[in-house]
Structure formats: structure tokens, C-alpha cells
Amino acid sequence: MAKTKVDQQQTRSALLDAAEKLFSEASFNRVSLREITTAAGANVAAVNYHFGSKEGLILEVIRRIVEPISDHRMEAVTALEEQYAPEPIPPRELIEAYIRPVVMLLDMTDQRASRLQKLASRCISDPQVGSREEFGELFRREAQRFGKNMMRSLPELEIDEIIWRLHLTMSTVISTIGSQDALTRFSEGRIHSIPPSELLARLVDFTAAGFESPSSFSTIEETPEKKGPSRALTSAALAIGLFATACTPGDLLTDLDSEPDVPLISHFSESTAQQSDIALVDRDWVTGFGSPALERFVGEVMSRNRDLKAANARINQALAGAWINRADGLPELAASFNGQRNKQNFIGLPIPGSTGILSSYANQFSPTLQASWEVDVWGRIAAAKRASLAEWQASVENAKAAELSIAGQAVKLWLQGAELQSQVDLTRQTLATFRRTESLIRDRFESGLTNLDSGAGVGQSLSSQLILAEADTASAKAALASQQEQLARVRRQLQVLAGEYPDGDRPLPSDLPGLPGFVPTGLPADLLDRRPDLLAAERRLEAADSRVTEAKRSFFPTLTLTGQYGTSSEDISDILDSDLSIWGIAGNAVQPLIQHGRLRGNLFRTQAQRDEVIANYEQAALTAFAEVENALAAERWLRQQEEALQSAADRNRAAYRQSVDEFTGGNGDLLTVLTSQQRVFQSRSSWRTARRLLLQNRVDLHIALGGSFLPKQDPKRN
């Protein structure tokens, strides 16, 4: 359990590190959860599991930055309070205590410090959630502390004036830190970046002068229920925050990032052990059954199965679609050659000495190179590329799912065939036993022995026992015929799976393999990373989001650049003469105006398709969880059933031997022999079936968990 907690913490930290890096490089709304989870090696549902939502993840990233700054501020203010007590703190020193931790970010040289600076800038230009209530809680404590001290330092200012100046102060600080390059541009190169110490001094001078200046505004009248410094100071919490502004990008320019609502729990309810470092999908789980024959058969199926070949063909189809979409965003170049010869007649034109119609001939040869390129200004083509790439990735995962499913079918069918072969062998042995018993009874019946002589009772003959023995033999023959028919059918099914002609000539063992050992099921959230069908569903969701983005960007103008270059000459020998070159450059912008609802209908359709994909993903995840829970629960009950049937078979065999010994010794009952031999057959047959069901359920568990239980390989060691 301790290992599970460590793994959970590692996943959480990996998500935070990946989000911090990606958010610093791009705006909050431009970074998708899938980019974060891919970089962290986790799944989309893990974000919901650890943070509740993408906004919760953003809040936690900001908290990692803000809390150390807040702690430094509080320590500095505490030191100032102790230094100047009982006098008020000078405003300049109080302001410096609040600005210094932020400015000192610029004095850090490590990679994470650079990310923090970029994040500060991002929150000015793209603060997606900066105005949410949760962010106020991050700064409420220090807001109250700052306000109370500033009221003591500047008693002539009203609380509202302090809040205003505080808001302007922190906005200035954040803007200055996040956009130092703007100063260079604004000053036309006269001022470049300055050291953090000088920047701090300038900011303190500027803000202190602002706080110490007299107020030229009247105090805003408050309602009685809102008066008092406590409420006002609480409302100033966002003003001193590092990320205290917000803006909402246009909906058409916002990339979607659907978050499926997948309920997750800390562990599978039917599992007593959790371990999250288990492998992704593979076929290594087949080796756990300890049967080389089974491994060879599964290998044949994987290499020759027609369904797997079809799945691989679908991968190539999706890959070709990705190539096509990739080409849409690249310049196109075409070459053409145009040659023509024209004849022109000059009718009615008087020319001395002419006896016919005057004609002229003209040649024109023109080789040309044409180039065209649609500039992806709004990201429509990029969204189409992402969609096609995600669809290709989904096809790859679908092929893995098909491989896992067909491997499971092969193993389960092979186990069924092995059980039927063992049942055939058992029935043959039982038939031989029944025939011996029938022969023994017939011999006694024909010799005229009575039940009185055999100790079975007075007045009874052996005719009824002989009939029962004959019925047992006939039933065994019927069971043997039925089992042989089923065995032949399974052999043909195995051959079809392996891509062979189904002639029924597939050898099978007569013994079932042993049950593999302990099952480390992992966490429910891990299942979303292991099951290829769930990974495929997640990729389809990414594709659906990108298709919606593509549909949105279709509302914007398309910009196409075209150009051509070539030569034009009447003599073909001059087509390479640069003096005869011709060229042209053109730009074309098209803005859809009246489409009669076509674009909006396409957007509505892609959104509905996206909603369908989300619902399918959620249902697939719930079904996957149920499959694991069912397989875990079934294994527990099937183990108990198999153990009980094995015990019953052992006891029935002992009872049969005892009844035979007693009968041949003259002290037993023939009916007891007949009954006990039937029970031996039934219990041994039932035990074989229960064992096969237990093994097949383990196959179901492997499929439900997405592969084997081998540890993941450390990529650093590869």
C-alpha cells in the first residue's frame, strides 16, 4: 500500500512538472490535457483523479509558485513587525517586503526559475482562470496582513484608497516583470534589461511615492453591511496576487480539451493488492501458463490471423489519411508545358499578286512552374492534422486491442480444447470401467447367482442392476460421442484462428496447464493507460476535439498565395532564355459570408460527434472497470469451486474403491458400486470444467487489465 501511495505521488508530481513546463511555453487555453498527460506519462483521467479538472491542475501549478512567494512575504513582514514594534512599519520597507520575493525570481538562474518568469508573463497575457474565487484564497492572508500594516503606516488614507493603490502597485510589478522586453522596444533601444536589484529599487521608489502621495479622490460610500476594514481587506486578496487578471479568448479561437467524467476510486473493490508499476499491453502473459505448446500456438495466430492483418491494413489507411492532411499545410508546386500553333486567315485583305486567302502561322511555347500555398493563419489546417494524427494513433491502439483480444480468444479456445481432450480421455476410462462393471454383473447374472448369495438381499435378482449397468455404459458412449464432436469443432476453430485450413487435424494436450500466480491489478486509473481500447477511445476523443476546432476555424478567412514562373517564346529553342521569362505573384483572401447555415451545421455536427465520443469513452472506461471487478470476483469464487470439486472427486474415488472392495469381498452392495462409479465420473468431469473456467477467467483478467503483470521498463536504462 505504501508503494501505491508513492506511485500516486510520483504521477501527481509528473503531471505538475509537465503542466508547469507547457504552461510556461504556451497559454493555458492552448495547452491540452493530452499534451500534459503525454509529457507526464499519465492519462487524462489521472488529472481528474488528482486535481478534479484542468482548472484544478492550473490552480495547483500556480499554488506551487505563489506559496513560496507568500511564505517569503510573511516572513519578511513578521521580521519588520518585530523590528519596529510598537511603531508602524515605514511604507517603503513594507512595500519592498511584498515586491522583493517577486522580483527575485529574475535573479534565479535555474531552468525552473525561467519557467516561473514565463508563467508570470503568461498570466498577464493569458490568465485563463485568474479571476476565480480559489485564487483569492491563495492571497487572502497576506492581503489582510499588508492592509492592516499599511493602515497603521498611512492612517490618513482610507481603506478603499489603500486597496486601489495596492491593486495598481501589484499590476505594475507583474507587468514589469512579465514584459521587460517591451521597455527596450518602447525606449527604441535606449533601455535594455536591468539587474533585479535595480529593478526592485525602481519599483519600490515608484510604488512608495504612489502610496505616500495625498489622495485626490473621495471615498466611495459603502452600505452598512459592507463597511469595515476586514471586508475590504478580504476583497483586496486578488489585487496583490501574482496572477490577478483575467481575460476570455474568443470561443472560435479556443482549442477544445474535453474532460470525460470517469469515476475513479483508490483501488479495485475486488482486489486485495494494488501495484501500479505493471506493464503495458503485450503477449508476455501467455508465458505465465507454463505451456510451450500454448505459446507456439498463440505465436502462429499472431503471425497468420486474418483479422489482425485487416487491423494492420486499417492502420495503413489511417496513416495515409494523416499524410494527406499533412500535405494540406505545405506549399504545392506543379510544372506545366504548353505548346500551341495557330493559323490566322486575312479574308478580304487586298495584296497585289495574291491569288488566294492570305494566312499567317504562329507558334507559342511556354514552360511554367506554378506554386500555391494556403497560409494557416487561424490553425484550421493544423487542427485537421492533429485530428488525422489522433485517428491514426487510435487505429494503432485498435490493432493492439485486436491483438490482445484474438490472443485471448486463442488461449481460451485452446484451453477449451485441452479440457475437451481430457474429458474424452476421462470418458474413455470411465466407459472402460462401466464395461467392466457391466461384465461382472452379467457374468453373475448368467451364472444364476442371486442377491442372497451376494449379500444384497433376499428375493432380488441381478436383472435390474444389469440394466442400470448397461444404461451407464450407453450414457458414457453418448457422452463420448458428444465430446468428440465438440473437440473436432474446437480444433477447426483453432485452425481458423491460426489461418489454416479447418480439417480438424490439430493436436491438443490432454492436461490443462497450471494457474499463474499472484495478480497485481494496479490502480483503476492505471487501467486507462494499459488498455489499448481505452487508449484508442482517448485518441478518438482528441481527434473529435480537433475536428470541432477545425470546424470553428472554417468561419475565418482563408489566405492563399500563388505564384508562377516560366518563359514564353515562339521558338521552342528559346524556352530556356531568361530574357523571355514571365512570372506572376498573387494573394487571395476569401471570407465566408452567406453559407445558408452550412458552416454552422458542420460545427454543430462535429460538436455532436464529439459528445458521442465522450459518452463512448466514459462508457468504455466503466465497462473496463466492471470487467476487472467481475474477473477478480469470479476468480475468488471459481477457486473455491475448483477446490471443492477436487476434494469431492478425491472422496468419490475413494468411496468407489471402497465399494468395489466390499462388493468383491461379499460384504458390499452392487447399487453402491453403480452409484459411486457414476459420482466419480461426474465429479472428475465437473472438476475439469471448473479448472478450465478458472483458467479462462484468468485470461479474461489479463484482457481486462490490458496485458501481462510484468514490471515496466525504466526508459533511462534502454
In short:
The chain is an alpha+beta fold and 718 residues long. It contains 20 helices and four strands.
How would you describe this structure to a colleague?
- The protein is α+β, with helices and mostly antiparallel strands and 718 residues long.
- The chain has four domains: 1-52, Arc Repressor Mutant, subunit A, CATH 1.10.10; 62-250, Tetracycline Repressor, domain 2 (Orthogonal Bundle); 260-329 and 378-555 and 597-718, Outer membrane efflux proteins (OEP), CATH 1.20.1600; 333-344 and 357-375 and 557-590, Outer membrane efflux proteins (OEP) (Single Sheet), CATH 2.20.200.
- Helices cover 62% and strands 7% of the residues.
- It is built from 20 helices and four strands.
- It has a four-stranded antiparallel sheet with strand order 1-2-3-4, with no helix packed on it.
- Helix 4 (54-84) runs antiparallel to helix 5 and helix 18 runs antiparallel to helix 19 (598-664).
- It is flat and about 130 Å long.
